[in-house]
């Protein structure tokens, strides 16, 4: 992921978290306590200075009583366009038995499998597509001419 895109995703996440916290009528300290994170860390997330892990996002979502999936999308962990594999990705992210590094590795492997399968599907489609009428180059030179070369 490009560095600029990560910054935008985190900034967008921070703004969204602040909106949700304010609408839930929670102070920064109250939300931090409910989510089990420090007040300064939560403040840095809201200001777009830190990118929280999926586990921290899940804790914040639970404290705010909102969808963790929305936070994952805003943080750039999930893509809103990836409807097919979302349940697999969410299962990985929600598994408390995995470390953050293991979760990211599994997500990377899963994404690479999807990309490989998509590339194979494109190749198969190109192989089975009807070929356009192929013209023999010699046909171009003799087309419309008689045996002696005159039209």
| CATH fold topology of the largest domain | 434 Repressor (Amino-terminal Domain)
Q: Indicate the CATH architecture of the largest domain.
A: Orthogonal Bundle
- Name the CATH class of the largest domain: Mainly Alpha
Radius of gyration: 27 Å
Helix content: 55-70%
Number of strands: 0
Range of strand content: under 5%
Structural classification? mainly alpha
Q: Which regions are unreliable across 5 or more consecutive residues at pLDDT < 50?
A: 1-8
- Determine the number of helices (DSSP H or I, runs of at least 4 residues): 8
Average pLDDT, to the nearest integer? 79
Shape: elongated
InterPro entries: Cro/C1-type_HTH, Lambda_DNA-bd_dom_sf, TransReg_Diox_bact_type
Organism: Nocardioides vastitatis
Region (Disordered): 125-151
Pfam family, one: HTH_3
What brief labels describe this structure?
151 residues; mainly alpha; 434 Repressor (Amino-terminal Domain); 2 domains; elongated; disordered N terminus; TransReg_Diox_bact_type; DNA-binding
Structure description:
With 151 residues, the chain is mainly α. Residues 1-8 have low confidence and may be disordered. Helix 2 crosses helix 3 and helix 2 packs across helix 4. The protein has two domains: 1-77, lambda repressor-like DNA-binding domains (434 Repressor (Amino-terminal Domain)); 81-128. The protein contains eight helices and no strands. Helix content is 66%, strand content 0%. It has helices spanning 3-23, 28-35, 39-46, 54-64, 68-75, 86-94, 100-128, 137-142. Keywords: DNA-binding. InterPro entries: Cro/C1-type_HTH, Lambda_DNA-bd_dom_sf, TransReg_Diox_bact_type.
